[in-house]
Amino acid sequence: MSFLSASLDRIKPSPTIAVSTKAAELKAAGKDVIGLGAGEPDFDTPDHIKEAAIKAIWDGQTKYTAVDGTPACKAAIVEKFKRENGLSFETNQISVNSGGKHTIYNAMVATLNPGDEVVIPTPYWVSYPDITLLAGGTPVFVPTSIDTNFKMTPEALEAAITPKTKWLIFNSPSNPSGAAYTESEIKALGEVLKRHDHVWVFADDIYEHICYEGFEFKTIAAVVPEIAHRTLTMNGVAKAFAMTGWRIGYAAGDAKLIKAMAKVQSQSTSNPCSISQAATVAALLGPQDYLAERAAVFQARRDLVVGMLGKAEGISCPTPEGAFYVYPSIAGCIGKTSPSGRKIATDEDFVTYILEDYGLAAVHGEAFGLSPHFRMSYATSTEALTTACERIQEACARLK
């Protein structure tokens, strides 16, 4: 009998973390490696947020807090949702967690029973299905394609819903594709959801502030108010505010669900870091002008990467509306052979080829549920991205 839990057999380690770890190991060994796998902005946390955290330390805010967030942090989140999304909540409808992944985990563990289904469009963030499985649920995947700009259609959503469906996980802008749903597209999905009142919606809005070319972000609870009572809206400070290491995610929704998530949290991590919560207050209530400035930098990088990858033989790269990833198709590379004789039969073969032969660490599409693709983060310097794209162009040109 194995000493380890059988539930571990249902999941796998995070592929994105594995790629970042491998890149760091190769760099430490003196290899010339460009990491393209991490979903982490290369900007620093703004100074006013750092200063708020330092002040919190000197003010003695170093003790346990309420399990799912301080009153000040919850109040700042309530204000954020009202100001930016037109959503009204009370503080008992707010959950503060140790990162967005923690928020998802709490929600799924608090609600899923064996046999419950969670609808997840592909390509998906790698943790959605594994957290579902760990919580005892069953992922139900809704395929999308490059032809639909990686967006789920109302017809595909309707076909995926069964009497066992408990959640739809809805991520816009998307990791890994960068696809972002317009207000009209969200309304069309809402018409389906209004017909199925047993289905709850987990709205992952973590890339809300990273949208391009005037794209107007809308969250589903505001666009389809008829389903707001069964929508959990998740966000966080990691991506837009460059606070990945501070580990704060948060969500707003039904008070009974929030209470259930707090119960899970009380027996796992307990409260999020008190210092990080003070920093989050400063992030949400302080200056916001730099968010658009940073999004403009990401857009310039996106345009560089899309343009250069579009010139690589065998690659087709759509232009994402948000986030900081591209998800190019490598269908034109499949079946070819590298100069060393490596057969490129899968997208995992391709990312192994560009890592070992060209020092580029990216994540293969199979990890996100849609092949043959790979995910490349452009949350790094223009110089590094230019070099990386030149290497990919060369790598593709040398395939025969």
Q: Could you name the CATH homologous superfamily of the largest domain?
A: Type I PLP-dependent aspartate aminotransferase-like (Major domain)
In CATH, the topology of the largest domain is named: Aspartate Aminotransferase, domain 2
Helical amount among residues, as a percent range? 25-40%
Kindly estimate the percentage of residues that lie in beta strands according to DSSP: 5-15%
Low-confidence segments: none
Number of strands: 12
CATH architecture annotation name of the largest domain: 3-Layer(aba) Sandwich
Mean pLDDT: 95
Q: What does the largest sheet look like?
A: 7 strands, mixed
End-to-end CA span: 49 Å
Q: Order of strands side by side in the largest beta sheet?
A: 2-8-7-6-5-3-4
Quaternary organisation: single chain
Rg, alpha carbons: 21 Å
- Figure out the total of helices: 13
Q: What structural class should be given to the helix and strand makeup?
A: alpha/beta
Count of folded domains: 2
Which overall shape is indicated by the principal axes computed on the Cα atoms? globular
By CATH reckoning, the class of the largest domain would read Alpha Beta
N-to-C order of helices and strands: HEHHEHEHEHEHEHEEHHHEHEEEH
